[in-house]
Amino acid sequence: MKVIEIPDDEVAALQAKASAAGLTLEAWLKQLAGTEDQPPTRPARHIADEILENMRDVPAEVMACMPEDGASQHDHYIYGWPKREA
Questions:
Q1: Over 70: is that where the pLDDT of 39 sits?
Q2: Is the whole model's pTM more than 0.70, yes or no?
Q3: Smaller CB count within 10 Å for the chain: N or C?
Q4: Number of H helices, E strands in the chain
């Protein structure tokens, strides 16, 4: 094994990058080097399932105030553009 000495200030910067990636410095360096097994990926889910999961916690009174034509007229509700003809 080869030991590499790195100045403390550079170690701190590397630790910050690893922490931002949610990894320890050792795991982050192994990932960069390509020597660590890839973490298991979540199975692909349909986007509709993701949206339904995120919308599950929206209170009923908030959902009742949402426009029924929100998808087809999103430019109107987001940007204030005139509504499109149906």
A1: no
A2: no
A3: N
A4: 5, 0
